[in-house]
Amino acid sequence: MVAAVVRVAPGLTRYAWVVAVLPVVSAVATLFFGRRTPGRGWIYGVSSLSAGFLLALGVLWHFVQGGAPTSASVSWFQVGPFRTDLGQYVDGLTAVMLIIVTAVSLAVHVYSIGYMRGDSRFTWFYVVLSLFSAAMLNVVIADNLFQLLVGWEVMGLCSYLLIGHWWEDKTNSNAAIKAFITTRVGDVPFLFGIFALVFATGFTTSNIQHIGQMVARGDLSGTLLLAAALLLFGGAVGKSAQFPLYVWLPDAMAGPTPVSALIHAATMVAAGVYMIGRLFQVFIHADHIVLTVMAVVAAITMLASALLAMVQDDIKRVLAYSTISQLAYMVAGLSMGGAGYTAGLFHLFTHAFFKALLFLCAGSVIHAAHSNNMSEMGGLRRAMPITFVTFAIGAAALAGIPPLAGFWSKDEIISTAFHQGHYALWAVTLVTAVITAFYMMRVVLLTFFGEYRGSGHPHESPSSMTGPLVALAGASVMVGFLNATAFNVHLFTEWVHVGAVEHEPFNYGFAAISIVGALLGLAAGYQLYGRWREREPLAALGPAYGLLQRKYYLDDLYLKGIVLPIRDTASAGVDWFNRSILDGVVHGFALTARGLSAVVNLFDRTVVDGAVNGAGEAAGAVGGRLRYVQSGRVQFYAAILLFFGIVGVVVVAVAVSR
Amino acid sequence: MTGQEYAFVVIAVIGSIGALAVVTARNVVHAALYLVVALGSVGGVYLLLGAEFVAWVQILIYVGAIVILFLFGLMLTRAPIGRETLDNQQQGLAAFVSIAVLAGLVFLIDDAFHLRHARPFAEFAAPTGNVGSAIFRGFVLPFEAVSFLLLAALIGAVVLARKDEPK
Amino acid sequence: MIRLPLILIFSAVLFSAGVYGVLARRNAVLVLMSIELMLNAVNLNLVGFSASLRSLTGQVFALFVIAVAAAEAGIGLAIVILIFRNRETINVDEVNLLKW
Predict the structure, then answer these.
(1) What Å distances lie between residue B121 and A368, B54, B116, C49, C55, CA to CA?
(2) Cβ contacts from A onto C, under 8 A
(3) What is the pLDDT of residues A177-221, one digit of tens each?
């Protein structure tokens, strides 16, 4: 633990929260001033994320120097003895996450200038983009569970808004709803997981580090810890699109491609994995079954989605299933406990860059070909050279070709699986790697080679789009070397680790196996797709192909088994309730009011009016009788006067004398 | 009962009968004349009490002027001379009230002065000179006020009663 | 001499008679006469007390009352004559315009 001994000044880590706040400012600025700004407001988002990226580099520098994690917080709310603060916890993981989010977000912001040009809701797009970045950054720096939850939920909202950006087309709004609801199905267990965890601490804290320490000391109840870990993993399953909640991610491709790149490749879907990493103490100290469940889910996901990626015609869907598969790799890495912690998160780090790159290239291709379908593409390498080269780099990185980034991170996971004795997991990861290489080769060949099968005039994209492509391609090449164990570089491990830092020596044997597997996949791909065939080669798989085409009937199961019954019975039930009970109550009130008003009316007319009129009539009647007293005859008056006068005098005299 | 008291009782009875006659006479002129009796008896009582100046002023003014005035008034207004009803409809009430007044006053007098135990008082001589001195020393202001009042009454009566001259 | 209560009773009788006359007589002049009776009753009271209390104030007051009574009788008769001129009658009963 050399890092802990070296006393390094906190440096810029104190200002990590600024990185999260800047996009909020730019979101508000774009919202209010975007329309009037030249360029329709992209300048705010781009500038805030550029500043954020530089600041993130500064934060990372602290850890490069070997600095220790820092934290800071302000009081947020207090309920009885339970206090929650608003704060930041900055360690190596935070630093690298900040880099990922700001870099990819910046690339997407710049890319969208060209991609979204002319869109009628251009300004709003940037508002939500900035808001999303702010939410993700908040999740990354959050030092307590509730703050994390806030960012988590806001991300879900932004995802919904952005997927449905072109909501005029019903398909898009349906996809947005599907995404939102499916991730919600995961968010509910996540919420309960947080509750369980806070409850387990006896309602004393929701601070992640404190909880981690309590867990490590063994202060928390085992059953609660197990329940919390499983529930929290549920959130990851939803957000990071693991089996069985991955069905929203392919449909989410209905959103604009920059959105897919940012949210559904690099950042939001990674948040689930990040969360597991952040709360890792809970997962490794809970009953071992949690890690087993994680491994099983990851294995199923990674293989199933890789197989699905093979049969897609839509280029973005291939990348979507690929993302699901790679996320499963990360979860698999983390499921191996402390040993796989660094590997899984390193893969998150590298995957962010090349997956974002692949998506943005796909966007470039779609922009040129005016179609998502690879059956309408082909031979684009001549028309779009920059896009071709960067895409190829990204594809190679994904396939795990050294010395590109994907190789270093994926290989680590595969070899760690073997070394930790998880042979089944090792087998699955290896097979998936082969399939990954296969379908990426398929994509490259179908898109960029052969004859152009479309009907437009494809051309290279503007520099506002190709610029980010080149930058991300460079990153895909470079970042791998942060943990290039072959060259004894262990920077990433030093930043992101749990427990003791173990520098595993580079195993050339396993590396060779991985490379061979990748090349095998590539060769198979070339064999099948090198020349254009009229009939899809994979159709030869027969009924298996049909199963893959129908996505294992999982979507149908969800729709017919869950959504429609709920919708129909629920809506019928709600309608009945509405008409009989609610309307009944309202009508009842109305009738009661009418009855009451009739009574009041009666009362008013007979009693009140009777009293008032009666008073008037009585006065009139009495007056009518009394007036005859005034007869005009003075002597009569005098008689009365004198009589009462004498009576009065006598009474007074008697009273006085007594 | 002293001799004066006897005399007083006789005069009082005469005066009371005269007063009653005033208010019940059928003939207005008779009523006026009965009024003379009543007023005269009162003057007589004044003499008995020793208030000689007041007594003669009483006779002078009341009998000599006011009653004459009433008679002239009766004449000028063609008061009905003859046996006609001079009373209005509320005689019963009037009788009741007057008897009530009488009873009340008698009760008060008895209550205050104890009829049974009253003692006669000595004679109080009031020579005219003394009365004059009393007026013009102690009561000059009321005297002047009353003379003013008389002047006003005089002018008022003249104004009221004269006929409007045809313009 | 004379016992005071007797004087007062005589005065009371005169007063009551006057009250009856005021209330019961129809002719306005008769009413005025009854009023004179009442005033005389008052005078009698005053003089009686003056003698009883050996003070001349009572008699002086009585003189003023006589003067005022005279004035009042004069004005009263003037008004009666005016009414007679207007209405050809001096029945008090018939001067009842201020009725309901």
Answers:
(1) 148, 19, 15, 11, 13
(2) 30
(3) 999 999 888 999 999 999 998 888 888 788 888 888 888 888 777
Inside any domain, residue B44: yes
Q: pLDDT tier at C14 (50, 70, 90 boundaries)?
A: very high
Spatial CA neighbour of A233 closest among A303, A294, A143, A149: A294
Q: Which two tokens stand for residue A58?
A: 């500064």
The tokens for A361 are 């290239």
Question: What is the DSSP pairing of strand A70-79 with strand A82-90?
Answer: antiparallel
How many helical (H) and strand (E) elements, i.e. helices and strands, does chain A have? 29, 2
Q: Judge if B11 and B84 occupy the same domain.
A: yes
Instruction: List, for residues A226-276, the tens digit of each pLDDT value.
Output: 888 999 998 889 888 888 888 889 888 888 999 989 887 778 888 999 999
Among the candidates B89, B114, B145, a domain finishes at B89
The structure tokens listed for A29 are 């600025």
Q: Which whole number is the average pLDDT over C20-31?
A: 91
One domain, residues B83 and B155: no
- Least Cα distance to A364 among A473, A456, A257, A264 occurs for A257
Task: Look up residue A408 and give its DSSP letter.
Answer: H
CA distances from C59 to A197, B148, C71 (A): 118, 20, 19
Q: How far apart are CA A464 and CA A509, in angstroms?
A: 43
Which among A630, A632, A635 has the least Cβ separation from residue C22? Answer: A635
CA distance B135 to B143: 7
Name the residue with tokens 């749990």.
A498
- The reply to whether B48 falls in a domain is yes
Closest CA in chain A for residue C94: A633
pLDDT-based confidence at residue A1 (cuts at 50, 70, 90): very low
Model pLDDT for residues B25-74, shown as the tens digit of each residue: 888 889 999 999 999 999 999 999 989 999 999 999 999 999 999 999 98
DSSP string, B15-50: HHHHHHHHHH-SSHHHHHHHHHHHHHHHHHHHHHHT
CB contact at 8 A, A532 and A538: no
Q: How far is CA C90 from CA A637, B75, C79, in A?
A: 18, 12, 10
Q: Which candidate in B101, B102, B107, B111 is best for mutational testing of the A interface (most A CBs within 10 A)?
A: B101
Instruction: State whether residue B99 sits within 8 Å of chain A by CB.
Output: no
Whether B104 contacts chain A with CB within 8 A: yes
Question: CA B70 to CA B64: how far, in whole Å?
Answer: 11
The domains located in chain C, with CATH, are 4-87 (1.10.287.3510)
Together in a domain, B9 and B84: yes
User: pLDDT per residue over A477-531, tens digit each?
Assistant: 887 777 766 666 677 777 777 766 666 667 777 777 778 888 888 888 777 777 6
Tell whether B35 is covered by a domain.
yes
Mean pLDDT (whole number) for A360-367: 89
Domain boundary at B89, B120, B142, which?
A: B89
- Residue pair A50/A19 in contact (Cβ under 8 Å)? The answer is no
**Phi, psi values for residue A371, rounded to 5°:** -160, 150
Domain count, chain B: 2
Q: What is the pLDDT of residues A220-234, one digit of tens each?
A: 778 888 888 999 998
Answer for the pair A471, A357: CB distance below 8 angstroms, yes or no.
no
Torsion sign over Cα C9, C15, C16, C17 = positive
Domain range holding B29? 3-89
The rounded distance, in Å, linking the Cα atoms of A150 and A651 is 93
Residue of A nearest to B88 (CA): A635
Looking at chain C, which residue has its C-alpha nearest residue B50?
C51
Tell me the backbone φ, ψ of residue A452, rounded to 5 degrees: -75, 125
Cross-strand pairs, A86: A74
Whole-complex ipTM: 0.91
CA proximity to A536, closest of A442, A440, A438: A442
Residue-level pLDDT at A10:
64
